[in-house]
Amino acid sequence: MKTTMTESTKKNKFLNLAWFPYILILFEMLYMATPFAAFFYSVYEIPLKFLNENALTARLIQTILPHFIETDSTIIPFLINAGWIMMAIGSIVFIVGFIQIYYSKFTKKGAVTGGIYNFIRHPQYAAWILFGFGMSLVWSRLIVWIMFVSMIFIYYLLARAEEKECMMKYKDTYPPYFNKTGMFFPKILHLGISNFHFPKNKFLYGSTILFIYASVISITILSAIGLRNYSISKMSTSCGSDYLAVSVTNISQRVTDKTIDIMLGDRKVQEEISTLFKKGDSKIFYVMPQTWIFPELGMTNELNEHNNPQARTSSHGNLEDTAPTKKRVLISLAKLIKDTEPSKILNYLKQQIPMLYVDIDLEKGEVVGISKPPHEGIYSDIPVPMF
């Protein structure tokens, strides 16, 4: 985080606040990848539920890129993989900058202008921005994207304040260094932005910054909505009069349609649906391999204890589907941000409540098992990714 050589900026409270949101985002991703995810969501249960109650704020916690559902898009996996790479590069650059700064501090060598600082004045800010961009792709919620953009503006203001102080303290050495380096990117990339001239009047300066911030946030929100709609359009789906079926694996719509037709053609399934749902209820059907488990959907490991005790039961570590003709459908009540046509259920879905499991054998063309989900999944009614 530290970019130059003044003690006063180390104690900058604004700087400490800039770290905090990113630490929360990092913990969210790490907890989601571990058995501690339930603990994490229990900690954030109240704010997540609060945001999910209102139609406007519920959009803030919606997932933008797919969290566990496969698509037929080549762009989506590229973005997610690129996010991981950005996070790795950002971490390395941050560590290098950190070592340079504190090596100089402990050896009392003064200003750091060599190494990575020979190209950019604020490598640790740049590293954290790159890391945050990658995190926004890997763990893509709208609120994370907004937070990321906000942090960029905070870092810019901090960097400007530090540079102003350095200009006053190191009048002979800092201006030449300033002129040959970029702020967050090497000057050869023409992205240093230090040559952009803001108004000197404080009111006009603040107004300009605020206008740019509002404009960038608006573009960010529109981009997030567009990318989310694109993600959904690349999923294997099928819809009926009051339901949307979505496959968690990348299968053809023909297979998805066949699975749902077999399920809805079964008399016992029809009886269960008429008992569990009221007229007019919106439903979402998640089609998946028969041995897979998704805790985000309220599913638990006990589901496979009798059928396949050795089945892998991790939402992000399910084994390859070796029995593509054997499907399981999770029938859920779809709670929506607003009433919409069945084909748009996933766009406005804010919570799904598991109601019924149906196991289907496509080769036999029949339902081979019906069971009830647990009354309360691992995450209960805490808002988690819906796809």
Task: From the structure above, extract its key features.
387 residues; 11 helices; 2 domains; alpha+beta; disordered N terminus; 6-stranded mixed sheet
Description of the structure:
It is a single chain. This protein is an alpha+beta fold and 387 residues long. It folds into 2 domains: 7-233, no CATH class; 237-371, no CATH class. 46% of the residues lie in helices and 12% in strands. It has a 6-stranded mixed sheet, covered by helices on one side. A hairpin with a 3-residue loop joins strand 1 (237-239) and strand 2. Mean pLDDT is 79; it is low at 1-11, 28-35 and 308-315.
Order of helices and strands: HHHHHHHHHEEHHEEEE
Specify the overall morphology. Answer: elongated
Q: How is the largest sheet built, in terms of strand order?
A: 1-2-3-4-5-6
What profile does the largest beta sheet have? Answer: 6 strands, mixed
Number of helices: 11
CA distance, first residue to last residue:
35 Å
Q: Number of folding domains?
A: 2
Residue runs with pLDDT of under 50 for 5 or more positions: 1-11, 28-35, 308-315
- What is the strand tally? 6
Instruction: Estimate the strand proportion.
Output: 5-15%
Q: Could you state the oligomeric state of the chains shown?
A: single chain
Global Rg: 26 Å
